[in-house]
Amino acid sequence: MTVSGFEPNIVxxxxxxxxYGGADLAGISRIQYPTNAKVIRLMCSGRIDxxxxxxxxxxxxxxxxxxxxxxxxxxxxxxxxxxxxxYDALSVAMDVMGLHPDRLKLLWASASEGxxxxxxxxxxxxxxxxxxxSPLAQISKTKxxxxxxxxxxxxxxxxxxxxxxxxxxxxxxxxxxxAPKRASKKGGAKx
Length: 191
Ligand code: FES
Fold this sequence. Notes:
Layout: E1 10-15, H1 19-28, E2 37-42, H2 50-58, E3 63-68, H3 79-96, E4 104-108, H4 114-131, H5 135-144, H6 149-160
Parallel strand pairs: 1-2, 1-3, 3-4
Bound molecules: FE2/S2 (inorganic) cluster.
């Protein structure tokens, strides 16, 4: 069952050399796929730090896709091996955070696999439509939600009118002490 009218917000991290090329090819080949993914291009999928994925969820993503070259094809030799390890660790962390593990997807796609890329995004969009909005996205939305207009007005008027503070009693005036007259330097004091 899908949540009606819900359009998932997906962040897709892609590596420059393979999966970004695949996404590009899908576009050039006019392959139809959902427009729910916002693509972030990185030089290698091994650049993805777990904190980047968590930040995406924190900022309202309903799903995150990590995409890179096939194992053995990484242009930096071992980048995607690191990606695999981080993905496995993140999948465990997702469960701890109360997020369904299907909200995170790993996709290997080369620059010539436009169709695989399009299929991956389509599949992920459909999965997240079934899962509904991310609970973390809901929290971030409620935090950002503006106040209703009436409450906003009240807040503004409260700010505009300064609080009345009781007047402080004026300090008592004490007579000024007059300085003793000094004898002028010229000629000194008269005898
Ligand atoms: S360059 Fe593509 S995964 Fe490393």
